[in-house]
Automatic annotation (TrEMBL), chain A:
GO terms for molecular function: branched-chain amino acid transmembrane transporter activity. This is Amino acid/amide ABC transporter membrane protein 2, HAAT family. InterPro entries: ABC_transp_permease, LivM-like. Keywords: Cell membrane, Membrane, Transmembrane, Transmembrane helix. The keyword Cell membrane applies. CDD domains: TM_PBP1_LivM_like (cd06581). The chain crosses the membrane at residues 27-44, 50-69, 76-95, 101-123, 130-148, 183-200, 236-259, 271-297, 317-334. It is found in: Cell membrane. It is a multi-pass membrane protein. It comes from Loktanella fryxellensis. PANTHER family: ABC TRANSPORTER PERMEASE PROTEIN (PTHR30482:SF5), HIGH-AFFINITY BRANCHED-CHAIN AMINO ACID TRANSPORT SYSTEM PERMEASE (PTHR30482). Pfam families: BPD_transp_2. One of its GO terms (cellular component) is plasma membrane.
From TrEMBL, chain B:
This is Amino acid/amide ABC transporter ATP-binding protein 1, HAAT family. Keywords: ATP-binding, Nucleotide-binding, Transport. It comes from Loktanella fryxellensis. Residues 21-269 form the ABC transporter domain. One of its GO terms (molecular function) is ATP hydrolysis activity. PROSITE patterns: ABC_TRANSPORTER_2 (PS50893).
Length: 358, 272
């Protein structure tokens, strides 16, 4: 009785195609939103913001972005780190060139610039698929990191080669720079996450999303029903890169404050976000959140368990973490290719009938 | 030798119109192999046109020429009175030509409803930005097209599996969903590549009924490839027979039955 759809009748097609067609799901969604917006900002402290919540929110945006490309449109990409770097360096250049414009506008513009770059690097997808496309996007990853290291203009010729975010305000409250309060960091990320998730959901449930999924499931059949593969694939690259650009911009400006491109946006980042999508569930917005939460929490949980409770050396725990992530990836690929989102779906199916399965 | 049929009404009350698609001297080569050799035939509005022939005769290649997968080296495709330039398959789809495949080509990761909704893509016009907001035009368009799709779901009697992922369906239902997806496009010309392959008698009867109903109720022109001679002779208004890439017969089922060349192709002929 925890979860039921009996008596929940739909009388319009709009009601049937809404995001949460089941009433208890809908209430749960509103409850999560209410807690995220109404409770957490008042209780958050520096540790929770910097170790868990802010990285979780930012990685969620990146995972949603990659999930649109890989999970919905079936185009494997290993260029996520590079595209996040494009978002970070775009927002840095915009912040230093136009200091009077709001940071919110800068972050959105950074997403737009990343969308253009992502579309350009998506062009090979029209000719190649699968592993070969993954290698082509890998080239984007290395090229972009090299570019931001090599060309001084991007980091304003700073001596260290790093970029660091100047202080910027939204409604009089600092959201970037050294004096930012944890709740301000959290709230600006939450605002972007909320909007991005709703936009992603709207796109994937409509005709654009169906075009992407058609290309993913069978590109020949997609073409025969009138999907132009060129626009479908490139729009997936554009939308995906837009989200990834936003997450890169927030990662740099709000979370880290200062970055060195190879360290923050290297190939590890591409794999991390890809793992989030795989563990969370390809082709699911909820899965993007679940995967991001899982991979952000895993190191924290292992550290608490290993270092604080069992007293192991922290290097051992760090190695254990690598092993655990690797094992989990294999486990999910073999046992549950649709990830945590599918486990959640199965659980809901069971709960629908619980405790009277017949 | 082409029979000149004027627009007329058949004995069972269906209206057969003028020429919808005219294939003129189509020749298709793969390297040195000539898959289709100088074939001409036409498809009239409102009729059911069958293409038959032994394995490897070039029937599927012919369908692939019509739907734009293959581009013939020679010959012209005329559609609705105009010569069709070389087109990609998605452009052909936008002209109003839909098809099903010999081996089912559904989107396994999507529900039946979503699969059929993809058939409406050529009718859905709202852009990316409008859909991001999901208010106004995008939501309205979605509901309108859903209504069309629901009519097709009712028509093909697949209401119960609406929300089922296609991957879980049995073979016969998958064939029906594929037909539904093609119908959702409201095509002017519907191409069916072996719609009854691998079906048992009941499933064949169901499918035949649906094909006749589609033709009758929506007035959809249908071109189909089928191996079951009984089905072909019962369903179709006119039949093209191909063998080794050549056309060896063209006419009503009665004419085809009496055609010596066709009989030879199917039964073999003594060489003396």
């Amino acid at each position: 009785m925890l979860y039921r759809e009996a008596g929940d009748f739909k009388t319009t097609y709009a009601a049937d195609s809404q995001t949460f067609p089941i009433r208890s799901d809908r209430w749960r969604y509103f409850a999560v939103l209410a807690i995220a917006w109404g409770v957490i900002p008042f209780v958050i402290d520096d540790y929770w913001a910097n170790a868990i919540l802010v990285p979780f929110l930012i990685y969620s945006i990146a995972a949603i972005g990659l999930n649109i490309l890989t999970g919905y449109c079936g185009q494997v990409s290993l260029g996520t780190g590079g595209f996040m770097a494009v978002g970070a360096y775009s927002v840095y250049k915009l912040m230093t060139m136009f200091p009077e414009v709001s940071i919110v506008v800068h972050v959105i513009l950074a997403g737009g610039i990343t969308a253009l770059v992502g579309t350009a690097f998506g062009l090979p997808s029209l000719r190649i698929k699968g592993f070969y496309l993954a290698v082509a996007t890998l080239a984007a990853q290395f090229f972009l990191v090299w570019l931001f290291n090599k060309v001084g203009w991007f980091y304003n010729y700073s001596a260290s080669g790093q970029i660091s975010a100047p202080e910027r305000f939204v409604a009089g409250v600092a959201v970037t720079g050294a004096n930012t309060a944890p709740w301000a960091q959290y709230l600006i990320c939450l605002a972007f996450v909320t909007v991005c998730a709703i936009v992603a959901r709207n796109l994937t449930r409509g005709s654009v999303g169906r075009k992407w999924m058609a290309i993913r499931d069978m590109d020949i059949a997609a073409e025969i029903i009138g999907v132009n593969p060129l626009t479908a694939k490139l729009s997936a690259f554009a939308v995906s890169s837009f989200f990834i650009g936003i997450s890169g911009a927030l990662f740099f400006a709000v979370y880290l404050g200062a970055v060195e491109v190879g360290e923050a946006f290297g190939i590890q980042k591409s794999f991390l976000v890809l793992f989030m999508c795989i563990i969370g569930g390809l082709g699911s917005i909820f899965g993007s959140f679940a995967g991001a939460a899982f991979l952000v929490l895993l190191p924290v949980a292992l550290k608490v368990l290993g270092v604080d409770l069992l007293g192991w050396p922290s290097s051992t725990v760090a190695h254990l973490q690598l092993v655990a992530v690797g094992a989990l990836i294999m486990f999910f690929l073999i046992k549950e290719p649709h990830g945590l989102a599918q486990l959640w779906r199965v659980t809901k199916e069971k709960l629908r009938l619980w405790p009277f399965p017949y | 030798m082409k029979d000149q049929v004027e627009p007329h009404v058949t004995a069972d009350g269906r209206r057969i119109g003028g020429v919808l698609m005219d294939l003129r001297g189509i020749t298709l080569r793969f390297g040195g192999v000539e898959a289709i050799k100088n074939i001409s035939f036409d498809i009239r509005e409102g009729e059911i046109r069958a293409i038959i022939g032994p394995n490897g005769a070039g029937k599927s290649s012919m369908l692939n020429v019509i739907s734009g997968f293959y581009h013939p080296q020679d010959g012209e495709v005329w559609f609705r009175g105009a010569k069709r330039p070389a087109m990609k398959p998605f452009q052909v789809a936008r002209l109003g030509i839909a098809r099903t495949f010999q081996n089912i080509a559904l989107f396994d990761g999507m529900s039946v409803l979503d699969n059929i909704m993809t058939g409406r893509l050529t009718h859905m016009k709202t852009g990316l930005l409008s859909q991001m907001v999901w208010a106004g035009p995008a939501a309205r368009e979605e509901a309108e097209n859903r209504a069309v799709v629901e009519r097709i779901i009712d028509f093909l009697e697949i209401q119960a599996i609406r929300k089922t992922p296609v991957g879980r369906l049995p073979y016969g239902l998958k064939k029906r969903v594929e037909l539904a997806r093609a119908l959702a496009a409201e095509p002017k010309l519907l191409l069916l590549d072996e719609p009854m392959a691998g079906m048992n008698v009941e499933e064949k009867e169901d499918m035949s009924r649906f094909i006749l109903d589609v033709n009758d109720e929506f007035g959809t022109t249908i071109a189909l490839i089928e191996h079951d001679m009984g089905v072909v002779m019962d369903l179709s208004d006119r039949v093209v027979v191909m063998d080794y890439g050549r056309k060896i017969g063209d006419g009503t089922p009665a004419e085809i039955r009496a055609n010596q060349e066709v009989i030879d192709a199917y039964l073999g002929v003594a060489h003396d």
